[in-house]
Write a structure and sequence with these properties.
Blueprint (H helix, E strand, L loop, with lengths): L1 E6 L5 E6 L11 E7 L2 E5 L4 E10 L5 E8 L4 E5 L2 E3 L5 E7 L5 E10 L6 E18 L2 E5 L3 E11 L5 E6 L4 E4 L2 E3 L2 E8 L4 E11 L2 E19 L14 E7 L10 H13 L1
Parallel strand pairs: 4-11, 12-19
Antiparallel strand pairs: 1-2, 3-5, 5-9, 6-8, 6-10, 7-9, 10-11, 11-13, 13-17, 14-16, 14-18, 15-17, 18-19, 19-20
């Protein structure tokens, strides 16, 4: 700042000088506060912690009350919520979140007898997850033939850890069985009988587990003869009825009309 000196009649004589003033913050009693670590990466629905440390500055004594505020949908708790400077100096900050997001938890320390003495620190929590899908989710297949679906995983909020894949059916396989973060695998299933099968593919990583269901509509046909033993004289015709039945919606190769179908069966037998 500049100081101007005025003297003489009507202040005609002047002079000035520049004075530099240094003002130091935090020279009075106060609270030093830090957290370790200041950034925590974890899975959703997993309790993650950081240690908050308080220390007296310039002789401050007494009790310090602690309060945490958090952004997003996370839930955070402090234990303990007050400390006595000089005897205990740490509190554990624990946060949990069901949503894959990044949140900031702010811990504020306030002197219990003088609310103007306060300080705060921030901790960043990165909650991650993954999603799993199948394309297609409904697979038509013939009995004895393989049906396939693509299993896709997607890392959420930066998730890039290994995901192990498994299926609940011994008639199915997944390849590869491990993906990292975002990736694709092939589900291949072969069923020997016609029916509808619901196959569950589950991806797991540590505390995370997600599943997707793929429905396989397996079709086929049955064939029967009545009677199965036909007595006949030499030169005479023997007759047996051959019945072909669709299983689970099977229509492959069926003649365009029932008459054509019956004719093909009888002709084949007579030959």
């Amino acid at each position: 700042m500049t100081i101007k000196i005025l003297a003489g009649a009507n202040n005609a004589i002047t002079n000035s000088t520049i004075v530099t003033a240094m003002i130091q913050a935090g020279t009075g009693p106060g609270i030093n506060i830090d957290a370790s670590p200041v950034s925590v990466t974890t899975n959703v629905n997993n309790l993650a912690t950081s240690t908050v440390t308080m220390a007296s500055r310039n002789g401050l004594t007494g009790t310090v009350d602690l309060l945490v505020t958090v952004t997003g949908s996370a839930t955070c708790l402090l234990n303990p919520t007050s400390i006595t400077l000089g005897t205990s100096s740490t509190s554990v900050l624990s946060c949990n979140d069901a949503v894959p997001e990044t949140v900031t938890a702010t811990v504020t320390a306030t002197n219990s007898t003088n609310a103007s003495i306060t300080n705060s620190t921030d901790v960043s929590y990165i909650f991650q997850d993954f999603a799993i899908t199948a394309v297609p989710m409904n697979v038509p297949a013939d009995a004895g033939s393989a049906g396939m679906s693509t299993i896709n995983t997607m890392g959420l909020n930066g998730f890039s850890s290994p995901i192990d894949l498994a299926t609940n059916s011994t008639s199915c396989s997944v390849s590869p069985t491990r993906l990292t973060g975002t990736g694709s695998a092939t589900l291949s299933c072969t069923f020997s009988s016609a029916s509808t099968f619901h196959v569950i593919v589950t991806g797991t990583n540590d505390t995370l587990s997600h599943s997707v269901t793929v429905t396989f509509t397996v079709q086929g046909f049955s064939i029967a003869a009545n009677p199965t033993i036909v007595p006949a004289s030499v030169g005479a015709q023997g007759v047996s009825t051959i019945t072909v039945s669709s299983l689970n919606g099977f229509t492959h190769g069926r003649p365009s009309s029932d008459n054509e179908f019956d004719k093909s069966v009888m002709q084949s037998y007579n030959d």
